[in-house]
Amino acid sequence: MTRAMLAGVLALTVISVSPLAQSKTATVAIYKTPTCGCCSLWVKHLQQHGFTTKVTDMDSVDEVKNTNGVPRQARSCHTGIVDGYVIEGHVPAADIQRLLKERPRGVIGLAVPGMPIGSPGMEVQGMSAQQYNVLAFDKSGQTTVFAKH
User: Fold this and answer.
1) What is the pTM of this model?
2) Is the distance from CB of 77 to CB of 39 less than 8 angstroms?
3) Average pLDDT, the chain
4) Can you give the C-alpha Rg of the chain in angstroms?
């Protein structure tokens, strides 16, 4: 094998195991209402960070939240499913990538309750970003702080 071929194989190996390359293979199924602009902006945020998205518009997303165990106190405007995990609200792509890499025991999803200004999709020109937490939740509805922003 020539040095050039070896370098090419090594480069492909590094690219194929990088977190960005891994996230490109993850498809996020997103359930939202058709008129929600902030949800659409969050979808673009995910796409810009390497996720493939499949959007389903619905009149109400409550059944998706109920079926997938999203705790009432953690709910927001849209729900996503990626690789068996539930993603509720405006969760940053980096936190989803971390979840998929670390796979913490007992966690079934992440949530950003409400719609905090400055979270992905909720950037409002002329307004300061709010501090917010990304919560991890389990099957029983218990939440813990996964990340602070």
Assistant:
1) 0.81
2) yes
3) 87
4) 17
